[in-house]
Amino acid sequence: MVLYKNRVCFLWFIAVGLLLMSCEHPKIFSPAENVEQFTANEIVPALIKMHITGGFAGLNQKMVVRQDGAIEFSDNFPYGHSRSDVLSQAELNDLNEAFLNNRFLVLDDNYLTPNVADFIYYEISYQSSDVHKTVFADYSAAPPSLRKVIDVLNAHIAALNRNGLDLQLSMSSDSLHLNQTVGLHLRATNTSEQPIELKFQDSQRFNFIAYRPIEAASVDQRQNVSTEWQWQQGKDSDTAIGLQMLLPGQTLTFDVEWNGTSETGSRVSGDLWIAGQLIAVPGGATQALHIFIAEK
Q1: What is the DSSP track for 252-270?
Q2: Residue 265 confidence (pLDDT)
Q3: 62 FRET partner, CA 20 to 30 A, in 6, 29, 30, 138?
Q4: Total domains in the fold of the chain
Q5: CATH code, domain with 237
Q6: Last residue of some domain: 129, 161, 193?
Q7: 3-class DSSP assignment, residue 109
Q8: Are the C-beta atoms of residues 135 and 153 closer than 8 Å to each other?
Q9: Which residues contact 231 (CB under 8 A, 6 or more apart)?
């Protein structure tokens, strides 16, 4: 097994291909339409991708493990939260073994229960050297070996969501008019009983992003939003790696004021969504909040 060695890259949202498969399963995707999932457009190649859809709640969850160990889970993109971390080499090896020992590369392409509504569906992709395999399944129809792979991936999602790092965004107002500003407040709290060591790759610690969702399927889900403004855009950063210990119950706060203009000074208007981002390992982004910006 050859793993590409790349630098850790913290991404705001992780890409997973989205195209409809059939009338019987409108939230599932076809293998023929997923051949572009592993592309040169991705800065750090993905090792594993899982997209979870369906269920009574209408799930839209995405998990990516990259070949450098970076892992991210996003819930209800582009409105929900995301959580990210970096796996140890031992954890990355265990994940590879889970796929190889359960013969993922020789599974069928589809394991789907016909004519059933509200099932939870899994689209799982794995890149082993130059071999790419995608499998579509619901848990009921999946063979035992595939269920083991799904269980391992779900365990990593659960670990990300219970790592004790709670990220919350609040705003001073949900509307903004000309000559006004809105206060944006990001809170990162350690809700666990153990200290959390935050690792920063450079001098950037946080970000606020205002964007509009684009209703279009894309190989790279970052293209499914139009970013209108970022707090960190154009700001200088150094390459010094920083560490900060967040004690149980301790909160980091990041506050900025935004006047509703882009980095170029042009007025942004209309319905937007704003999320706060902690640029650290572990890190992630808050659930997005809606704001209306008037033209005048």
Answers
A1: EEEEEEE-SB-TTSPBP-E
A2: 86
A3: 6
A4: 2
A5: 2.60.40.2360
A6: 161
A7: coil
A8: no
A9: 184, 206, 207, 208, 209, 256, 258
pLDDT at 190 over 80: yes
- 35 pLDDT band, cuts 50/70/90, is very low
Same domain, 151 and 236: no
Give yes or no: residues 41 and 146 share one domain.
yes
- 219 and 140 assigned to the same domain: no
Q: At what angle do helices 144-161 and 89-101 cross, to 10 degrees?
A: 160
Judge whether 206 lies within some domain.
Answer: yes
Please name which of 172, 222, 207 lies closest in space to residue 286, comparing C-alpha atoms: 207
- Determine the Cα–Cα distance for residues 288 and 80; give it in Å rounded to an integer: 6
Backbone angles phi, psi at 115, to 5 degrees: 55, 40
List, for residues 72-111, the tens digit of each pLDDT value: 999 987 788 999 999 999 999 999 999 999 999 999 999 9
Residue 40: pLDDT over 50: no
Q: Give the max Cα distance, the chain.
A: 61
pLDDT of residue 31: 32
Q: How far is 223 from 79, CA to CA, in rounded Å?
A: 15
Among the listed ranges 158-167, 197-206, 217-226, 281-290, which one has the minimum average pLDDT value? Answer: 217-226
Amino acid at position 34, single letter:
N
Per the domain annotation, does 97 fall within a domain? Answer: yes
Per-residue pLDDT reduced to its tens digit, 258-292: 999 988 889 999 999 999 999 999 999 999 999 99
Looking up residue 129, the CATH number of its domain turns out to be 3.30.1560.10
Same domain? For 155 and 170 the reply is no
